Inverse folding.
């Protein structure tokens, strides 16, 4: 559901870029059916309706799915242009589009990715000025009312979900600050709502499993705030104008899947391994520890009042608070708001964002050079580490061009973290093009641009 809602901006941009063209969307019916009243005006097809799709010719097909069935369908249908994973008649799959390939390259390699999925859905086919001209309404700030705070209990994976004791204590902290907690969740969270209610033992309205998505949106109009892990209903709340506090814990990257519209807040652990975490390999989820209910309740009260001065003063040991906004380019950005700054990590993420945006024609190299100069000045040892690794990469790429030899299977993840964003894309790009000579030439061109910037020449 969350992936479908994050496609809504693309649907709007397609309507503006291709006026008068119908937009057909193939998706799981259990996800699109309840979202249809809230969705942009597109025509949804379930997988059972493929017979109708096969009769038509298309101007553009965009495959945002990782399913083999979707790649086969994209390859089978007739279209003037295609983007995303596409299978040919032999069953071989290829990824079409610079940005679709980049998105695939950050699988298990997203530590320094700063592109949001909603933007990556669109960048291959929507002009950047169309994205930058889009205005998203700020979330509602309700005045008066009964100060109800919604708590969405569930998420698709256990690592993303707070525990029952956490939710029970948060209910107590919210109530002690003059606010009223309301529990929400889908049918799978009905038992969880009952557990939280029993553990809390105080007055709380349990709405888990009682509302469909349309009713959740309607009830959300009366809420001051929605506190939620990274989950589909979080994106639904942000889309509908309900103010969101995202408890970003576990194996998620909020730069990729945080609330997309403006002026929502994301709370994230400062642990280095929590940034770009794809799957936790530690003995337990240490990144959950700093999420102390009293701190969350204090943030909630300041957000309810739209008191940014109070938010800046909130003590957040082990946590960072970010706010979502759009910079002048129109792309999603998380602005560090309070808590300990990540310093090198954020600067390096911004550098790679600028580099790939430059490489794929979104902008010139001025921003990339400026950010690298800032990074080099503030983190000279890390900058030197990247410089020292570049000659080896250049030699390996030159050998690859001369011999048309593939890279080793562990090439990208054997590179230092500081350059792995680049190495991961290069590795997948070469594989996607069967290591042909034009792809090696393109790799050397990208390498030379990177080396020129990093060396300052």
């Amino acid at each position: 559901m969350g992936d479908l809602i994050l496609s809504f901006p693309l649907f709007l941009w397609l309507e503006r870029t291709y006026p008068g063209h119908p937009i057909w969307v193939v998706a799981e019916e259990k996800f699109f059916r309840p979202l249809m009243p809230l969705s942009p005006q597109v025509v949804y097809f379930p997988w059972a309706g493929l017979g109708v799709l096969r009769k038509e010719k298309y101007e553009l097909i965009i495959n945002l799915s990782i399913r083999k069935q979707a790649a086969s369908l994209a390859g089978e249908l007739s279209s003037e242009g295609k983007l995303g994973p596409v299978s040919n008649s032999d069953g071989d799959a290829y990824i079409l589009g610079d940005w679709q390939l980049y998105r695939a390259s950050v699988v298990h390699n997203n530590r320094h990715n700063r592109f949001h999925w909603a933007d990556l859905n669109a960048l291959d086919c929507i002009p950047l000025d169309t994205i930058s001209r889009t205005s998203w309404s700020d979330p509602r700030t309700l005045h008066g009312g009964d100060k109800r705070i919604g708590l969405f209990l569930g998420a698709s994976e256990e690592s993303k979900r707070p525990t029952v004791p956490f939710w029970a204590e948060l209910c107590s902290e919210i109530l002690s600050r003059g606010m009223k907690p309301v529990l929400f969740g889908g049918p799978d969270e009905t038992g969880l709502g009952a557990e939280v209610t029993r553990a809390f033992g105080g007055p709380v309205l349990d709405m888990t499993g009682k509302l469909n998505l349309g009713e959740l949106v309607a009830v959300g109009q009366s809420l001051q705030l929605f506190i939620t892990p990274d989950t589909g209903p979080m994106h639904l709340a942000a889309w509908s104008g309900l103010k969101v506090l995202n408890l970003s814990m576990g194996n998620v990257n909020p730069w990729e899947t945080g609330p997309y519209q403006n002026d929502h807040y994301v709370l994230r652990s400062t642990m280095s391994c929590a940034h770009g975490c794809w799957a936790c390999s530690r003995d337990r989820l240490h990144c959950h520890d700093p999420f102390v209910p009293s701190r969350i309740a204090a943030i909630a009260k300041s957000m309810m009042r739209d008191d940014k001065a109070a938010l800046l003063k909130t003590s957040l040991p082990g946590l960072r608070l970010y706010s979502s906004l759009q910079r002048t380019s129109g792309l999603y950005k998380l602005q560090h708001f309070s808590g300990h700054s990540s310093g090198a990590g954020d600067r390096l993420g911004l550098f790679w964002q600028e580099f790939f945006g430059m490489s794929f024609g979104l902008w010139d190299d001025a921003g990339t050079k400026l950010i690298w100069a800032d990074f080099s000045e503030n983190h000279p040892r890390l900058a030197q580490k990247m410089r020292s690794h570049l000659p080896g990469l250049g030699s390996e790429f030159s050998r690859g061009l001369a011999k048309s030899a593939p890279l080793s299977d562990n090439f990208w993840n054997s590179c230092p973290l500081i350059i792995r964003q680049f190495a991961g894309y290069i590795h997948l790009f070469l594989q996607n093009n069967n290591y042909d000579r034009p792809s090696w030439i393109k790799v050397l061109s990208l390498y030379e641009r990177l080396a020129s910037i990093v060396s300052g020449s």
